[in-house]
Amino acid sequence: MDVYSASVKFLDKNHISLPKLGRLRVSGSHRRIIDNKDDIRIGTVTISKDTADRYFVSMQLGSDTPFVKKLAKTNSQVGVDLNTENFLTDSFGKVVANPRSSRTIKGKIAKAQKVLSRRQRRAKKEKRSLRDSKNYQKQRVLVAKLHDRVRNQRNNFLNHVTTALINNHDLVVVENLRSKNMLKNHALAMSISDVGWRSFLQKLDYKANLYNRTVISVNPKNTTQTCYACGFIMGTDGTDKLTLKDREWTCPNCHEHHIRDWNAAKNILAKGLDKLEKPKNLAKAK
């Protein structure tokens, strides 16, 4: 193991030497990098502190060999339908459950924030600085840790899901969702913010670029309302549009029975494949 810079050096897997701070105990993902490579050079080092009073060391690393191994081709393509009932359903019919990260400790957070507000009011009433109020600071850290737990659970879940999609498929097709607009629907706002769609799509794009996979976003219009088998669109020819309560439905045109989200995922994949084919067809026409 030889991971160092002029002023920063890993002493072993659990300790690092930093200028002015000396020898510090560390934990985190650095072990995985150190175990796999012998030619890492440390560039810029940044030390930060979060709201839960924890310190982090971020490093810019250099190496003569790639940090990421290339993934083998899978010859697999998948469409992904994101929803609030389940987190996602893919075009193979696989369903990933919604972990509902924030709702699991919603009560604890609300209770802790009430205590924090009460201590803030008391400090102001006694004309004490919040910085000097020990009880307030203890409660502030507690609230920050609860929020951090939710954030970590969500990130861990999203990383597992996105990594699985990238590892198992050459092409992933997703909906181009405008979560900001959807958050205006107060009935769905909490569910949408809890699942972390935006973060999911960002992670998926990042990993696709990293591992040379393809991610395509398509217009979600009518992906739910369209029958994958015959192309009939619900809400036309005197039929009613599907609502959020309609989890399964039968096409009035071809009588194919659909699971709502699975059907949508198939339509999303079809749109993605069509989007890939269009540039090729235009090139041939020229």
UniProtKB/TrEMBL annotation:
UniProtKB keywords: DNA recombination, DNA-binding, Transposition
Region described as Disordered: 115-134
Designated name of the protein: Transposase
Species: Ligilactobacillus salivarius NIAS840
One Gene Ontology term of the molecular function aspect: DNA binding
GO biological process: DNA recombination; transposition
InterPro entries: Cas12f1-like_TNB, RNA-guided_DNA_endo/Transpos, Transposase
Protein family per UniProt: In the C-terminal section; belongs to the transposase 35 family.
Domain of life: Bacteria
Cas12f1-like TNB domain segment(s): 197-268
Ranges of residues in domain Probable transposase IS891/IS1136/IS1341: 69-185
Bias (Basic residues) ranges: 115-128
